[in-house]
Amino acid sequence: MRSVDGTVNEALIADVVGEVLRRLGTDARGVGEVRERISSPAAAAASGKQAAVGSFGVFSGVDAAVVAAGLAQRKLAQSPVGARAAAVDAIRAVLRRDKEELGRLEFEETRIGRLAHKFEKLDLAASVPGVELLRTEATSGDHGLTVTEFAPYGVVGVVTPVTHSVPTLGCNAIMIVAAGNGLVCNPHPNGARCAVEATRRFNQAIVEQIGIDNLVCTIANPTLDTAGEIFKHPQIQMLLVTGGPGVARAALASGKRAVVAGPGNPPVVVDETADLDKAARGIIQGAGYDNNLLCIGEKEVFVVQAVAEPLLAALARHGAHRLSTAQMDELATRVLHRDETTGHWHARKEYIGQDAAVLAEVIGVRIDRAVPLLFGPVDERNPLLPCEQMMPLLPVLAVPDVATAIAKAVQYEHGFKHTAMIWSRDVETLTQMGRACDTTLYVKNGPCMAGLGVGGQGYCSFSIASPTGEGVTSPLSFTRYRRCVMVDSLRIF
Q: What is the C-alpha to C-alpha distance for residues 353 and 288, in angstroms, rounded to an integer?
């Protein structure tokens, strides 16, 4: 709502106020009050209250947020592509500059994961691609010239998870704004405060760069009802949802174009040809990262019987703590619960994302708090195998041969087609598993994060859209394919 020099953009305020009041049927006498709240965020902050509605992207209601994001998006659409690049750079700068403060805010609010990894994830979010992926394509021939460009949708409705509240918001904001859109975010309620603060900072930085406020809007007090409003809002052109099965189903049922990053239960296969020390280090790195909150994180291991004990020894040697089969069974009954309606196993909320030491204490085992991962051998009755538990607790099932291991990986991945890992030197085996699992991410001889450019080739994203097929999302995921054709010969040779 403010220009680059900090002055209030009265015209934009009037547009927002008028449109919101028209929609809500509010008496015109309320215009002055809303105008004052929008135009004076500094006064609200000075009074010790939450920043004013409409101040740098923070809104109490969905309708007002959508109107503001729509106005901002239309202004961005009238600007050069360089304005998008500048806005994206502003978001990246905030993520990098404020990573420790924002990471700490998220950790203190959510109380899950590991603090150092919160900082690293914000660096990763800042690295996602922007306008550089939006390349115009042109084809000329005897019949004329065809130009293909990638156009914005308008306003994108976004839902972010508690597991990576600020990184997912930052990543999505970069991609969506790079594509020329605005966005309205309904963060997970347990990660809303840090998302709101990040939103303010993103918009402040964008205003300083290009003078457009509210490209990134967030609902201050999100609920299931506000998520539903976003899904149904007529001025939301598409959706990006990152979360569990329930929110994914709701997005798919909305009738809108939806990019859905759904659940995963990533398996790991280890065969008799694997480098077991390298496999152990990689498995610990992935499954222990941020206490296994990553949706791509290793959740269960299927190892060929001939090398099962050497793999278990290697995992212990490289810093994970080994539990017995009986201890794994006992711990599973304590940290999981069974849904009596569906029969599915789920992690108890109080244990999601907690340190390995906290989980070990549940069964009376004391370990150093720096230990990244608990693991142990299980039989197939252990409910940890089918459960996307998001805890640093890794079940290891020994199987007769690699064909069985691959079959079990497919079974326990549940057809989510999300992520799978394998450690093997056999090229044929590597190919067979890739075809069998058919996952969006398939990592061979590396930890899960290699699939997102961390230790492997490629770029990062915090939204892996397996259910709707976009895969690793990028700015192109939020564009419409448009073709412009000039008929007749235009060739110059």
A: 10
CB of 412 within 8 A of CB of 385? yes
Location of structure tokens 């965020």: 41
Closest CA to 287 of 298, 296, 295: 298
- What are the φ and ψ backbone dihedral angles of 167, each rounded to 5 degrees? -60, -40
Q: Residue 22 has which token pair?
A: 């028209």
DSSP state of 467: T
Q: HSE-up of 402 (CA within 13 Å, CB side)?
A: 20
Q: Degrees (nearest 5) of the Cα angle 337, 339, 340?
A: 120
Q: Is 260 exposed, middle or buried (0-12, 13-18, 19+ CB in 10 A)?
A: buried
Helices (H), 156-307: 165-178, 192-210, 224-232, 245-252, 276-287
Tell me the pairing of strands 345-347 and 336-338: antiparallel
Q: Give the span between the Cα atoms of 160 and 158, in whole angstroms.
A: 7
403 closest CA partner among 305, 296, 263:
305
Return the CA Rg of the chain: 24
Could you give the residue ranges of the DSSP H alpha helices within 379-477?
402-413, 427-437
Tens digits of residue pLDDT in 467-491: 999 999 999 999 999 999 999 877 7
> What would you measure as the largest C-alpha separation in the chain, in angstroms?
81
H-helix or E-strand spanning residue 123: helix 115-126
Q: Which helix (H) or strand (E) holds 376?
A: strand 374-377
Q: Whole-angstrom Cα distance, residue 379 to residue 313?
A: 18
- Residue 44's pLDDT is what? 36
- Look at residues 360, 362, 376 and name the one whose alpha carbon lies nearest to residue 325: 376
Length of the chain, in residues? 493
Q: What is the mean pLDDT of the chain?
A: 90
Interatomic CA distance for residues 192 and 144, integer angstroms: 52
Mind listing the pLDDT tens digit for each residue in 309-336? Answer: 999 999 999 999 999 999 999 999 999 9
Q: How far apart are CA 312 and CA 421, in angstroms?
A: 17
Calpha distance 94→90 (Å, rounded): 6
Which of 335, 381, 394, 340 shows the shortest CA–CA distance to 362?
A: 335
